[in-house]
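Standup notes
- DV: blocked on the single-chain target, sequence here:
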Amino acid sequence: MPEPPHVIEVHLRTAEQLYNSLDPSPFHERDLDDNAERYIVGWAREAKNSASMQLIVTLPDVARQAEAAQRIPDSIHNHFSYRALQSKQDLHELLRIGRRSLAIGIVILVLCFGAIRYLSLVTEQTTAIRLIEESFLILGWVANWRPLEIFLYDWWPIRRKTVLFEHLAAMPVEVRTASERVPSIP
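- DV (later): unblocked, structure below
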């Protein structure tokens, strides 16, 4: 038996509360208010299975009849589709920077190994030369620190955010009146 969807409830006095008041776009293209987005995303992160979520927006009876209330599902889907696209672009940019940084890091590492090899062939192994060789070795590996950090760790949170936004963009959104509100289960 499939698990019931994780329900996220948002209670509003007017549909306009959901939107960023500084955004002049029509309702179906408007950005969500930062607090509304944080609230929805926060509750979505709590879901065990983010693929099965549902958003219920509750409005007073009068506000539910307004045209803005009718556009809420499309607005939310458009907003999170756009946020998913932004997140994908952020990931592509990070990976592009990682590739470029890795190429630079590898060149520096090869040059450092070349310098170490050159010093070991043309000089006597004194403490000072050994210190210089170790310094080149450290420099070569430090030059690769950031690219390795990007490819090992930094991309995961962005990918998780992209998947979450994609799930939010696809989740069913229902607009109800306050009288249709489903009581919470204790």
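- Follow-up: Helices lie at 34-46, 61-64, 67-70, 72-122, 127-142, 145-170.
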